[in-house]
Amino acid sequence: MLYPQRFSQFTKEHTDTLAALLCGLLLFLGWFALHLGWLGLAFLLLPAAYVIGGYESAREGLTTLLKEKELDVDLLMIVAAIGAASLGLWRREYHLIIDGAILILIFAISGALEGYAMARTERSIRSLMSLTPDTARVLLQGKEEEIPISQLKVGDEIVVKPGELIPTDGIISSGYSTLNQAAITGESLPVEKTVGAEVFAGTLNGYGALQIKVHKPAQSSLIQRVIRLVEQAQTEAPPSQEFIDRFEKGYAKVIVVAGILLATLPPFLWGWDWETTIYRALTFLVVASPCALMAAIMPTLLSGIANGARQGILFKNGAQLEKIGKVRAIAFDKTGTLTTGQVQVFQIIPVSEYTQGDVLKAAASVESSSEHPIGKAIVQAASDLDWVGAVQVQAKPGQGIVGIAQEQQIIVGNAVFVQKYVTNLLEELQKMAQSLEQEGKTVVWVAQGTEVMGIIAIADEVRAEAAATITRLKKLGVEQIVMLTGDNEETAHTVAKAVGIDRVYAQLLPEDKLDVIRRLQQQYQTVAMVGDGINDAPALAQASVGIAMGVSGSDVALETADIVLMADKLEKIAVAIHLGRRSQAIVKQNIFIALGFIMLLLVGNFLGNINLPIGVIGHEGSTVLVTLSGLRLLN
Length: 635
Hints:
alpha+beta, 7-stranded mixed sheet
C-alpha cells in the first residue's frame, strides 16, 4: 500500500518532468521511425509527443484566451509548433514535424526547470510552516494532556520539555532555559529565558523544562502572523511586475500581428518562397515571445523575501523589497526603537503632602491599562504596592492618560498634558524635571484632581547597536536621518547625540509625526519610518516604507508596517536596504539579458541564420538563465 502512495506523490510532484521525459522519448522514437521510413509509426508517435509535451501549455493558453480574452505566450508556442508540423505535412518535409516536436520538448523541459527553480524559493519561504508542532502538552488538573494547537485557550498552562519546539506564544510561568530563536528572529545565539519572559511559537527549547502560560490565541502568534504575511507576499505582484504583465498582454498582440505580416508580405516584397516565409514567421513567434522578460522580476523578489525571512527581516510583499532599495531618508522613533524600550523608574519626587508610594500607586492605577513601555515600567515598579486599577481610562497617544481611581481623577503624562487639568505646576518641581530631562531622563507628571502629586523620572537605555546602525546607513548613502519623538527636547537631543542623529523633532503628537513624514517625502520622495508604538502607526502607514520592531512593537504597528524586524535588531535595516538594492540590480540585469536575447534572436531569424530548434533553445535558455539569476538572492 505504501509504494502506490509514494508513486502517486512522486508523479504529483514531478508531473512536468515526467511529461517532458515522455515527450522526449516519443520524439526520439518518432524521429527514428521517420529515419527508417516507417511513416505510419512516426505519425502515431509524434502527435503523441505533441499532446503529452504541450498539453499543459495549450490548456493554460486556451484558458487565458477564453476567460480573459488575452493572448498568452504558451499559446504562441503551441501555434508555432502546430504551424511547423502543418508546413511539414503540406510540403512533405517531415523534418519540420520534428522541429515542431523539438519546440514542444524544449518548452516542456524549460517549464519543468522553472518549476524546480521556483519550488526552491517556495520551500525556503514555506519552511516557516513546519516550525510549529501540531499539538501542545497542556496541564489539566495537574495532569499532562496533548491537544491540538487550535484548541488552546488564553490562560492555558502548557509544558515544553528540553529539545521541543515551543507550540505557541506565551509567558514563562515556571522554569529556566535557553531558546534557539534563529528561525523566528534571525538571532544566531540562543537566548536565556526565565519566569516572566515571553517566548515565541517555533523557537527551540534548550536544556530546561518550561511551563508556559498562553497569553494570546494561537492564531495570533508571531509565527502565524509571519506565515499569513508571507502567503500574502507571494500572491501580490509589485508595481514593476504589474507593469510587465500589462506590457506582455499588448506585446503578445503585436507579435501576432507582426507574425501574420511576416507570413504574408515577404514573398511579394523580397521574393521569398512560401516555405521559407512561413517557417521564419513561425520562428519569429518563438524568439519574440517575452518569456524571459516575464521571469525577470518575481523569482528575484521572492528569493529576496526568503533571504530576508531567514535573517529576521519580514517583507510583507515584493513592492516593499523594491522600495527599501530606493530609500533616501529614514525617520526613527525614539522610545522602543533607538532605545531598548526596557525603561525603568529612575526616581520619584513627590510634593510635600504625598509620599513616593502615593505617587507611584496613582500612576500605576491608570497606566495598568496602557501598552506604552513607560506605563509598563511604572506598573512594574509598583508591583509590590497595593493599588486598584482605574476605570474609564482614556489614553491620548503621545501626551498622557486619564482615569478614575477610588473616585478620584488621575492624570499621568507630560507637563503640557497635565497642565490642562491642574491649577498650576510647582516651579520647584519644574526645575527638578528640567534638570532630569537634561540628563536624558523622561519625566512623567502625576496629578490627582486639580493638584500635582509629583513627578516620576524614567530612564531608557539606548540600544547598543543604534550608533553603528546610523553610521552604516550614512555610509550606504541615506541622505537624511531624523528622529521623531513625543518626548521633550532635552531627552530627545541627548539620545540623538548618543546615536549620531543631527536632526530631531521632539514633543510630537501622532499627527505631527505624520506631517514630518509628508514633508520628508516632498524633499526625498522615498522615505522609511521605523517605529514600534500605536502612536507611530499613522507615520508608518504614510511612509513609503514602514518598518516595525517585531518583538517590542504593538499589534497596530505590526499590522501597519511594510517590513517587520523580527528580533528588534536595528542593524537589520541596513541589511534590508542592501537586499533591496541588490534585488533591483539583479532585476535590471535580468531585463537586459531578456531583451538582449530577444533582439539577437530576431536579427538571426530575419537574416536566416537560425532554425526553429535553435530559436527555441535560445528563447527557453534565456528564460531559464534569467530565472536562475533571480535565485541568486537566496544565498
